[in-house]
Design brief:
25% of the residues lie in helices and 22% in strands. The chain contains 4 helices and 4 strands. It is globular and about 45 Å long.
């Protein structure tokens, strides 16, 4: 084993105000983040389990391993949803984990995002600079009042023996 993990973690932070119809249901039959993530991925045709449409890897994007949430209704910033998945056998795919998380959260309530984190197995990625540049137009055409500043950090460390980064 080379010490590099094939695990992707994704988390969204902010506040959540649950929809009134969820409160009216008294919490019964309200899925947790795991259930929402699996259901949403399957609805997109991106199976996150070894079941359903993605069973033969035709639509599978990751091997879903864990998810969680903190939907405490106190107005404080919390980690609203997190998703953990294994991508070792699914190289060179785009992983829509944030889309699945966000869609699941908005199904539960009104979300105000304050942050995100995605420790990703970048050693499994391909160069995505061209698709990102092409997609920039989509994101540029938006309500100027709704824009937010977003920053990011990438941390790397030297591999054992000084042979590149990991």
């Amino acid at each position: 084993m080379n010490g590099r993990t094939p695990t992707l973690l994704a988390g969204l932070h902010g506040t959540l105000r649950t929809h009134p119809w969820i409160e009216d249901a008294g919490g019964e039959d309200v899925p947790d983040m795991f259930g929402l993530a699996v259901d949403r991925a399957e609805a997109y045709g991106w199976s996150s389990t070894h079941l359903g449409a993605g069973a033969g890897l035709a639509g599978q994007r990751w091997a879903h391993s864990d998810a969680g949430e903190d939907w405490t209704q106190d107005g404080r910033v919390r980690q609203l949803g997190r998703l953990q998945c294994t991508v070792e056998k699914l190289r060179n795919q785009r992983l829509p984990a944030m889309t699945v998380l966000h869609d699941g959260l908005t199904r539960i309530g009104d979300v105000r995002l304050t942050g995100a984190h995605v420790p990703a197995p970048t050693h499994l990625t391909v160069d995505s600079s061209v698709p990102r540049a092409v997609a920039a137009g989509w994101f540029a055409f938006s309500d100027p009042d709704g824009r937010e500043s977003l920053g990011g950090d990438r941390a790397c460390r030297a591999a054992p023996g000084g042979q590149g980064l990991r």
